[in-house]
Amino acid sequence: MMNKISRVFVLVLLCAGCLCANAANIIKDGDLESKLGWGLPAEGSWQQEGDNQFFRLEQQEPDKMLMVYKEFAIPEGTKALRFSVDARTKDVVNGDQPWFGARVLTKLMDKDNKQVGSAPIIVFGDKDGWQTKSAEFDVPEGAVKFVMMPTLFRVKSGSMDLDNFALEPIIPEVKVEEPEVVFETPDSVIIPPTSEMIQYVGRFSKNFCFGWSGSTIRVKFNGTELLAKIKLTKGSKGGLQIVIDGKANDEKLYVTKDKNVYIIASGLKPGEHTVELVKTGEGYVSEMCLEGFSLPNGGTFLPVAKRERQIMVLGDSITCGYANEILDRNKGNNVTNQNAYLTYGQVAGRELNADVTMICQSGYGIYRNRSMQNDTDGVIPKIFSRTLPMDKNIRYDFSLEHPDVIAINLGTNDKHTGGKKEELQKDDYIGAYTNFISNLEKVYPGAKIIVSIGPMYRGDDVVSWLKEIADADPKVYFLLYGQMGEGDIGGHWHPSVQMHAKMGQALKNKIVEITGWK
Fold first, then answer.
1. 449, 311 in Cβ contact below 8 A?
2. Measured distance CA(164)–CA(328) in Å, rounded
3. Which of 54, 77, 210, 212 has the highest count of CB atoms within 10 angstroms of its CB?
């Protein structure tokens, strides 16, 4: 069949000036909110979901090529660019060749409209939900124009939604040499991770490695400065929220593989201080190990008072704080925008002066996970016995935990079908849930259990099933979190920090109701 190309609209945007320090987006209206200059072929259409606007290319004739063609002038002096785009595909059946699919083609052109150098081709597979993809590349000498072509390249059928185009100059980093941090000096007071002066909250391995969100290390001392030796064992960067005397630092600490000694606190007033390190991200993002603390200017480590109340929260991405520190529903989760310290479980724990253990993983359910493979093997009840979330070989000693309350928030992923899975069945969901509760009651006798859902869930069936579960067991209670409003929506429609605060109050109130805690 002959290759057919739909009508294409060409727009050239001129961007004059020098490379700016703020690396502004060269693609004006990249978020598509004003539709300015975004000419679409006949097979293209504008779409709206909530407050978000995007466009769709939809194949209506097999093997036809659908394309939007746009050109952008490259600012003079640009040495490198970063291009990113959000896309969502549905039911795309690729064409006769491996490269016939959903993609965004790009080119770099000189003043004579000849291609120079190489630019990325961004390919989108038929995965569920919005995906953000980006690429960084050098700008060769003579390149004055960037060409972008979102394309359904001769596919048989399907559609591709596109949004949030960004093209930004990469500003070369000026590397500032950091002074070397010396862990041990003649004045140092050092304690190893085995010290009784260190308090661990959550699950830690025998060599003091930790991976679960919200894992907390607490230490008290008399001094003005504190260092920690921490080793990153999985991932490229791990986040820690530093909390000094009950106040969280504005900036998170990032642990990397090229460094293992970190300044945790400095310039403190002489006297007693309590410091907490709280793991902000999930196990698939990072895992790290504590190797000790140092008071470099001298001082004394002091015993940390143990909190009597213990709460455990079990859940999915909502519980973990997926992208809770951003208010852009089109952006996904990463190490910089996820903060377990600001999740509803941790909020409730601080309100009630209780320690919190978090067992959660994005995309996971209680009967089946969110994946399109109908995965029932890697669910939360199956990984619950792990000391480290990504290591199935180290089983946890449950005698080390004594939760008074266990709050479960699972069902949003179980219910998800993506239009490709069968609907969740009541017997499967209730069966998996009641079996898990039975196991929890065996390892944590006396714990009160809260079954909950929301706020991303829509519908009545899971709500009624959870009420049925709670009604059948006097130790089980039901909680429905409220829906999200203005300022409550974070990355990929997950709860923002503001919404987590509201959920934390709801969980706190429920715990007070069933325990009598003040």
1. no
2. 11
3. 210
- Helix, strand, coil content of the chain in percent (nearest 5): 15, 35, 50
- What's the rounded Cα separation, in Å, for the pair 161 and 145? 25
Spatial distance between the Cα atoms of 278 and 338, rounded to a whole number of angstroms: 12
pLDDT digit string, tens, across residues 365-424: 999 999 877 889 889 999 999 999 999 999 999 999 999 999 999 999 999 887 778 999
* Domain 4-169 homologous superfamily, CATH: Galactose-binding domain-like (2.60.120.260)
Q: How far apart are the first and last CA of the chain?
A: 75
- Name the β-bridge partners of 90: 159
Q: 387: number of CA atoms within 13 Å, CB side?
A: 16
The answer on pLDDT for 17 being more than 90 is: no
pLDDT surpasses 60 at 73: yes
- CATH classification of 189-302 is 2.60.120.260, yes or no? yes
User: Strand pairing partners for 93?
Assistant: 157
Q: Cα dist. 297→183, 184, 186 in Å?
A: 11, 10, 9
Domain 4-169 shares a fold with domain 189-302: yes
Reference 157, options 87, 56, 63, 86; nearest CA is: 63
Helix (H/G/I), strand (E/B), else coil: 136 = strand
Give the helix ranges, DSSP H, for 360-404: 380-383
Q: Considering the entire predicted model, what is its pTM?
A: 0.70
Phi, psi of 48 (to 5 degrees): -135, 130
Q: What is the pLDDT of residues 490-499, one digit of tens each?
A: 999 999 999 9
As to burial, measured by CB atoms within 10 angstroms (0-12 exposed, 13-18 middle, 19+ buried), residue 407 is: buried
Please state, in angstroms and rounded to a whole number, the distance separating the CA atoms of residues 168 and 162: 18
Question: What's the pLDDT score for residue 176?
Answer: 65
> Cα angle vertex 477, ends 473, 481, to 5°?
150
> Which token pair is 25?
């987006």
- How far is residue 295 from each of residues 196, 273, 398, 486, 514, measured CA to CA in Å? 16, 12, 33, 45, 43
- Looking at residue 152, its amino acid is L
What are the distances in angstroms from CA 344 to CA 43, 300, 405, 409, 467? Answer: 44, 34, 14, 11, 21
Cβ(286)–Cβ(335) below 8 Å: yes
Give the pLDDT of residue 20: 37
Distances (CA, A) of 32 to 102, 150, 182, 348: 20, 14, 50, 39
Task: Return d(Cα 338, Cα 323) in angstroms, integer.
Answer: 5
Domains in the chain: boundaries: 4-169, 189-302, 309-515
Which single residue is written with the structure tokens 């310290």?
341
Q: Is residue 38 a contact partner of residue 32, using CB atoms and an 8 Å limit? A: yes
Closest CA to 23 of 85, 82, 84: 82
pLDDT at 186 over 80: yes
Q: Sign of torsion, CA 244 246 247 253?
A: positive
Q: CA gyration radius for the chain?
A: 26
CATH of domain 309-515: 3.40.50.1110
